[in-house]
Amino acid sequence: MKRFIIFLLIGFLTLPLFCFGAVVPNDIQIITEDYYPLNFVDNGTLQGISVDLFEKILQKMGSDINRSSFKELPWSEGYNLVKTTPDTVLFTITRTPEREDEFLWAGPFFTDRDLLFTNNSFQQSTVLSIKNNA
């Protein structure tokens, strides 16, 4: 968690360097999905750390666009939309080798890893063995 916070602080401190002279089109579509705690709807308002960060980036770029114009869509719909519609942004998306050439990438906003916790008596040695015994 400490590395994540440091990464965010470095990102916010260096953000103006990357945004200088950048222009955000007014008709840009910004799409996200329900992926708690990064992006989610609470009482009708899009919330989450990725939403906060993306909104701050737009502000630093001098844009008036804010979270009220972001759209939350099901993952498959947002993913297909960003692949077929110009001036469309999708966040938060995992950067994979298969997707590398499909998009123009910005970021990363953060990095993550998946962890599995068990008690001491758990005898499975790999994720594959857990899946096979489920």
UniProtKB/TrEMBL annotation:
Residues 31-119 form the Solute-binding protein family 3/N-terminal domain. Pfam families: SBP_bac_3. InterPro entries: Solute-binding_3/MltF_N. Signal peptide: none annotated. This is Solute-binding protein family 3/N-terminal domain-containing protein. It comes from Methanospirillum stamsii.
